[in-house]
Design goal:
alpha+beta, ligand-binding face of the semaphorins, domain 2, Immunoglobulin-like, Rossmann fold, six-stranded mixed beta sheet, five-stranded mixed beta sheet, 16 helices, 21% helix, transmembrane helix
């Protein structure tokens, strides 16, 4: 065959295929019947052995059914399987009145209950689901109340709730049970005060309150309303420090502790009453609680015992557990917190929010209204779908209302006894990798009833089962004659398996120029001449196409800093070949790890990997150039204290769970503190720790974390406990001290008096010396001698 004939044939072939570009059956390029029927619902496979014309490939047997008939294939020889369905369990929905008493398990609200569906790729299978809101359907209601001090007046009104609510709910159902639980907060700082006095009475002033607690199951679900009033009447208000409460801990326990609460497989209502916000996952760190909530029941004697150990649950975790246990939640909250709980309601399916009065006087009306709101709307949800499977809903509701799309899952304004219908369509786009059946469940949230749908997949044609292995029709046994065509053995190709892959790579004339069985000739970058690609030339002679299919070039590689391969490599076949010490798609990363070495010689302190010369810490809590900082981490000693304590001394908080939680510890005891290993400049850093136990004894240990995450611990075998005080020396010391202090005070007083007297005497002497006396006669001086003269004496 000369070159012109090849080019003409190529042109005709390309023209014909281009006209069928939108045909999914042809585009699938199916080699056998199973591949064909998975390409689309309209695809069929012609099993007529004489169907193909000269030059046509095996994939030409796969086409739309109408096209195959037009091309001459008899309809009876076209393999075109269709899906099907069977109803395996179909108990009618219950029709009854209140005068007909039935057990909960005898009531059916959803029909059918189980189906078996066989799916073909691209072909939807539809079925109808009927839902009827049953008359006199049993209800379990659990009242969960915030007992912090601000709810004091509310508790008084709730004390008479049991009989009043029972009376009101008898208008809806004759089978009603009620339970009660209360919550406050985690019993650790800073949520409550841990002083002994506050632990006994957390309220201020002359108010008497009960000790704080996390959650308490006061009354298991019961039909005795008087018992509810009695037990609730015995409850007392408690108190805490912060405004948000620990209600999420309580909701989690109510959801997962089914046996202790007493839930039945009926309508389950949880009334959550509070006048405050809520703590959620992550808030526990304020109290040093970092373990995520495990979503398991931890009630002992009806009290939640692990509030100090596990963090609050997340909203998503609560949604999962409430959904798994078919619980519908009613948030009865004060007007102040309405916006917060409205947002929470949007995240929790099948929940409602009611405005609680300041003293909970309207709680009965709130519960009844919320229940009517929840039960008047049905929304279908399905379990996780297998890969490639989609599901669509169309709701036929009351008064001829039809909802489609996302609203097709929902019907509203459903009264007791109303019946609605959903049309459900399931479609598979491909066969599962294992080809095994899959199961999905469809149910209304908050209901224990569901429809089980078993999905089977058509992955091959029926004619494949009657194939003839090593058929003489297939080049003397080089393949299996299956569905009218040869399915070649490994290494053989061609319509009749007549060619070896070592000689010819493809089934059609131009296949040698098509890469990976594609449609592009020479990757649209060249021409196919005699089965060989000749690549185009570009204006820039430095830019060239290359490769067997012209699929490679040296100019379409990734760039970094506007440079091809970052200037640190060369472009080969659209991939960068980097120079030494560089890596990355664009050779943008340096492999020099010296910038990642920490002071201890470890790369990124063993907490990350060195990428492009920069440390990428494996955990976001580590920071710094070499992952050396951890602002949110507790001290390494505190972090490992409990495990060391339980392993070495069989004491501490983890003594009961030591073997489960404290693995990868290599512990060695030493007799003296001097023998504890000291920190060195060795590659593995070592911490020296001194921790106190519950007996106020100090225990010493060193800790080194090895590369395999094993903790090497050396611990002093005997804790150092403080000796008790010796009373006699203390008393003697106090007496001697008092005497010595008294003598010292007397000595000081005497010394001060001597100093004062000497100063006064010196002052007197000085004034005496400076005094000046007048020598004249004192005018007031009178002599002690009196002289008398006789006036008659004449001196004779």
């Amino acid at each position: 065959m000369d070159l012109r004939l090849i080019l003409i044939t190529f042109g005709l072939f390309f023209c014909c295929h281009a006209s069928k570009e939108g045909n999914e059956c042809i585009n699938a390029n199916a080699k056998y019947c199973g591949e064909c029927i998975q390409a689309g619902a309209k695809c069929g496979w012609c099993t007529d052995p004489n169907f193909l014309k000269q030059g046509e490939t095996v994939s030409s047997r796969c086409d739309e059914v109408e096209s195959l008939i037009k091309r001459g294939c008899n309809l009876t020889l076209i393999e075109n399987p269709v899906g099907k369905q069977r109803v395996l369990k179909n108990i009618p929905v219950t029709n009854r009145g209140k005068n007909k008493k039935l057990k909960p398990e005898e009531i059916t609200q959803i029909q059918p209950q189980k189906l078996d569906i066989t799916l073909r790729s691209g072909e939807p299978q539809s079925f109808n689901l009927t839902f009827k809101r049953a008359e006199d359907y049993p209800i379990d209601l659990y009242y969960l109340m915030d007992l912090s001090y601000s709810m004091k007046d509310d508790l008084e009104n709730v004390k008479n709730l049991g009989t009043s609510l029972m009376l009101e709910m008898t208008k809806i159902t004759s089978d009603f049970r009620i339970g009660f639980g209360s919550f406050v907060e985690k019993t650790v700082m800073p949520y409550i005060s841990t002083t002994p006095a506050k632990l006994l009475n957390p309220c201020t002033g002359d108010q008497t309150c009960t000790s704080p607690f996390s959650y308490k199951n006061v009354l298991k679900l019961t039909s005795n309303g008087s018992l509810f009033n009695t037990l609730v009447g015995q409850q007392h208000i408690s108190g805490n420090l912060d405004s948000p409460e620990g209600g999420f801990d309580a909701i989690m326990q109510v959801a997962v502790c089914g046996d202790q609460i007493g839930w039945r497989n009926v309508t389950r209502l949880l009334v959550f009453s509070t006048d405050a916000g809520f703590h959620f996952a992550g808030d526990g760190k304020l109290g040093g609680i970092v373990l995520p909530n495990d979503g398991k029941c931890h009630l002992e004697n009806n009290i939640y015992t692990m509030s100090h150990y596990y963090d609050y649950p997340s909203i998503a975790h609560l949604v999962q557990k409430l959904s798994d246990n078919n619980i519908q939640t009613i948030f009865a909250v004060t007007e102040e917190f309405q916006p917060v709980y409205q947002e929470l309601k949007n995240l929790i399916p099948k929940s409602a929010v009611g405005t609680l009065s300041a003293n909970s006087s309207n709680v009965i009306n709130l519960i009844v209204d919320a229940y009517n709101s929840l039960s008047s709307e049905v929304i279908l949800e399905n379990s996780k779908l297998p890969d490639g499977v989609t599901i669509a809903y169309t709701a036929h509701c009351k008064d001829g209302v039809v909802n489609e799309g996302e609203n097709g899952r929902k019907c509203s304004n459903i009264s007791i006894g109303d019946e609605v219908e959903f049309e459900i369509s399931v479609t598979s786009q491909k066969c599962p990798s294992n080809g095994k059946p899959e199961t999905i469940n469809i149910k209304p949230p908050g209901s224990s009833e569901f429809v089980e749908v078993v999905l089977n997949f058509i992955c091959d044609c029926d004619c494949a089962a009657t194939g003839v292995p090593n058929s003489p029709e297939c080049n003397k046994g080089s393949g299996t004659l299956e569905c009218g065509a040869c399915k070649c053995n490994e290494g053989q190709i061609g319509q009749f398996c007549e060619c070896s892959q070592d000689e010819v790579q493809t089934n059609d004339m131009d296949a040698n120029c098509r890469k990976d069985n594609g449609t592009d000739i020479c990757s649209n970058n060249g021409e196919c001449v005699c089965g060989t690609c000749i690549c185009k030339k570009r204006e820039n002679p430095a830019e060239v196409y290359s490769g067997k299919y012209c699929d490679c070039d040296n100019f379409n590689c990734d760039r970094s800093n506007n440079k091809l391969c970052g200037g640190h490599g060369r472009c080969e076949c659209r991939k960068c070949i980097c120079d030494a010490n560089y890596t990355g798609n664009a050779c943008e990363c340096s492999m020099d790890s010296s910038t990642c070495l920490a002071k201890n010689g470890q790369e990124c302190n063993g907490r990350g990997k060195c990428e492009c010369g920069v440390c990428k810490c494996s955990d976001s809590k580590f920071q710094g150039p070499t992952c050396e900082l951890c602002p949110t981490c507790p001290g390494v000693c505190t972090e490992h204290k409990d495990c060391v304590q339980c392993l070495a001394f069989k004491t501490g908080e983890k003594k009961d769970t030591c073997h489960q939680e404290c693995t990868k510890y290599k512990l060695e005891k030493v007799t003296e503190r001097e023998r504890l290993p000291q920190p060195t400049d060795e590659p593995i850093p070592r911490a020296i720790c001194k921790e106190r136990d519950e007996n106020d004894c100090w225990f010493y240990f060193t800790l080194a974390v090895q590369e395999d995450d094993t903790k090497q611990v050396h611990v002093l075998e005997k804790p150092e406990c403080p000796a008790g005080p010796d009373i006699v020396p203390i008393v003697i010391g106090v007496v001697v001290g008092i005497v010595l202090i008294g003598l010292a005070l007397l000595f000081i007083w005497k010394l001060l008096m001597i100093i004062h007297d000497r100063r006064e005497f010196a002052k007197f002497e000085k004034e005496k010396m400076n005094a000046k006396w007048d020598t004249g006669e004192n005018p007031i001086y009178k002599s002690a001698v009196t002289t008398v003269v006789n006036p008659k004496y004449e001196g004779k």
